[in-house]
């Protein structure tokens, strides 16, 4: 078995030197300011050993990766009732697409496309004040990462709130079908803010550990979700975690993963490791270009593909 520390160090070195870096997201103006040359990686194995390289301690905007954690929270609150308002099929469409909602009674295809994540956020909100729901999401992230310093980047949240017309359209459209319970402005406010949570690769890999170890944090022994739920969240990450790039990600990397337009990807090697990578340049589907390549190299060299 190759040495994980060496593999991670070599991948970080190679990624630093590559010139094909993709395009940094610019539709959220604040994200356009991020340095495209950044690259970070953190891998945490079953013994809690961390292998990290590059900018692994620099916080970045986790964006859609937050949707894994809001799904986990919402399933804890609503259980299978959640599946009445959101499906669990890949969409084959871009993350912010509206086309399927009209023919499918406003029910989003899955919890990871924007429409689905907004519907999930609405479930967490369920009659509470936006501030309380957001506090709950943030505390959940801090608990999972065992790090109370994790915060929300208010500038990123405000930037998206000012420009998130497409998400406002999705939310209003779903509201017209009765999919959302709360005022659209409340739900969107919580959604924009949880997308703006800032975390480093190390913090994110820590937070994802329960998915790699059947719902338990192997260090503390604490159960976050039952094993069956961890398996199912991983299944949705594999099939829907990269939007219309999910097939390609499964083909190349072979691990459940969730991307965000901040350039992060959380990936899960069941029983072996929780992995976070960050490279801000994106491919045409809005997924981290070098992040995917780094994960492909890691999975191949460690023999971690689930297939
Ligand atoms: O709603 C949005 O457009 C962003 N807050 C999140 C999108 C995202 O991260 C898509 N991921 N690749």
Automatic annotation (TrEMBL):
Substrate binds at residues 64, 114, 160, 167, 191, 243, 261. Keywords: Acetylation, Hydrolase. Gene3D superfamilies: DD-peptidase/beta-lactamase superfamily (3.40.710.10). It comes from the Bacteria. It comes from Hansschlegelia beijingensis. The lineage of its organism: Bacteria, Pseudomonadati, Pseudomonadota, Alphaproteobacteria, Hyphomicrobiales. Belongs to the glutaminase family. It catalyses: L-glutamine + H2O = L-glutamate + NH4(+). One of its GO terms (biological process) is glutamate biosynthetic process. The keyword Metal-binding does not apply. Signal peptide: none annotated. InterPro entries: Beta-lactam/transpept-like, Glutaminase. Pfam families: Glutaminase. GO terms for molecular function: glutaminase activity. Homotetramer. Its EC number is 3.5.1.2. This is Glutaminase. NCBIfam families: Gln_ase (TIGR03814), PRK00971.1-2 (NF002133). The gene is glsA.
